[in-house]
Task: structure prediction
Amino acid sequence: MAADKDFQKDLDAIRADIAALTETLGRLAKDMTDVRDTVKGSVKGAAKEAAEAGEELLSDAMKLGGDAARAGMSSMEAEIKRNPLSAVLTALGIGFIIGIIGRR
Result:
């Protein structure tokens, strides 16, 4: 009979340990879900910030490119006004070369 009581006591202890382990695993799963959600939110936030920064850089680059193109056009117009004969001869030469290449 003493053996039966010891067996029952051991069985109850095992059941209690299994219940505690089940509870611990449940908390661990919840904590892992919380960590996953936190990391997911952080990654989304970082991706959004990176996209916004990329858009801003692209916008700035486009503005600078436009400004440079306008400055180049202004410089070219000023040069044509200063030396119209050179501009006409240069355009004629470029047209001649393009015509020769186009024939081939």
Q: What stands out?
A: Residues 2-103 form one domain. Residues 2-82 form the longest helix (81 residues). The chain has one domain: 2-103.
